[in-house]
Amino acid sequence: MGTHMDIQGWKRYVSGVILLSAAIHTSFAVTHYSIPEEMEEGSVVANLATDLGLDVKTLIKRKVRLDVIANKKYLDINKEKGELFILEKIDREYLCPAKTTCFLKMEVIVENPVRIFYIELEITDINDNNPHFRRDVIHLDISESTSAGERFSVSNAVDSDVGSNSVKTYYLSESEHFDIEIQSGRDGSKFADLILKKALDREIQAVHNLILTAVDGGVPARSGTASIIVRVVDANDNAPKFDKDSYIINVTENSPIGSLVVNISFALALFSTDQILQFSLHIFVHCANPCAQCRSFPTNAFYTILLIITPTGR
User: Fold this and answer.
1) How far is CA 126 from the centre of its chain?
2) Nearest to 222 by CA among 156, 159, 135, 180
3) Which superfamily does 132-233 belong to?
4) What is the tens place of the pLDDT at every residue in 25-60?
């Protein structure tokens, strides 16, 4: 019984020594590297054997291996040369979406004796994405009575790239009536407000077609566009106009009911299908002899007829 306990104790002692030895040979220093995203497969990142002080001739025997922490294996070690190389292209936007920094943490492990080295690989952004708008076409309805100086929000552009490669400015196609003002969000993002710099007149131009362009800060710069379609809403600022101010018409007293008396023409500066026209007649009878009360159509009587046309919305 005592012999068995001695053997178990000895095993625990040996295991403890091995673990302590492994801990002693573990390097707690972190070796840093930095590479741009999208490097070709097979590209060499660094010579680990040189940087970590390992003998290339013993790497295979010591079963050197690379563990990528919490990620797929984008890199590996060439055991014959001691080089860290790209196993699969790294897409920074996929690996670290919407982050300003991106790191891969790795461990290099060798045996006989056991040693562990910590590697931190920074993936830097390249300008490989165009800015784009959430909507390719932006529709705005603006009343022609809107005062100059009014501003309108439009959809901002987004860019998967970060830092200097993200959206930096906007440009608007040439316009007599519109301009843009670039604003900065709390997170540093850029967006544009559309500014009305000259009053609109639907009777002159009912639709304005504009192009908004977002440009990033990369070299060379990339850009994306969206169409802005401004529909000018009628403010009913033009009264109907008759071709004459007054009409003098002679009508015989025996004219049958329904007879055409006169054709009256009028014009609207702009009439749309969402309007209806209301007509109202106001008749005033004038008699030379008030006692006759104009119950018949005396030869010395005349009528003043006031015709009013009112355009209204439906």
Assistant:
1) 21
2) 159
3) Cadherins (2.60.40.60)
4) 555 689 999 999 999 999 999 999 999 999 999 999
Structure token digits, residue 241 = 């106009």
Domain chopping of the chain, boundaries: 2-124, 132-233, 241-313
Helix (H, G, I), strand (E, B) or coil at 3: helix
Amino acid at 66: L
pLDDT at 292 over 50: no
Question: 3-state class of 307 per DSSP?
Answer: strand
Tokens of 289: 């002899």
271-301 burial, b at 16+ Cβ within 10 Å, e below that, comes to: eeeeeeeeeeeeeeeeeeeeeeebeeeeeee
Average pLDDT, the chain: 82
- Per the structure block, which two tokens stand in for 280? 């109202």
Q: Cβ–Cβ contacts within 10 Å for residue 53, how many?
A: 10
Question: Which residue shows structure tokens 């012999």?
Answer: 3
Global confidence as pTM: 0.66
Identify the CATH homologous superfamily for domain 2-124.
Cadherins (2.60.40.60)
Rounded CA separation 276/128 (Å): 55
Give residue-wise pLDDT tens across range 71-94: 888 999 999 999 999 999 999 999
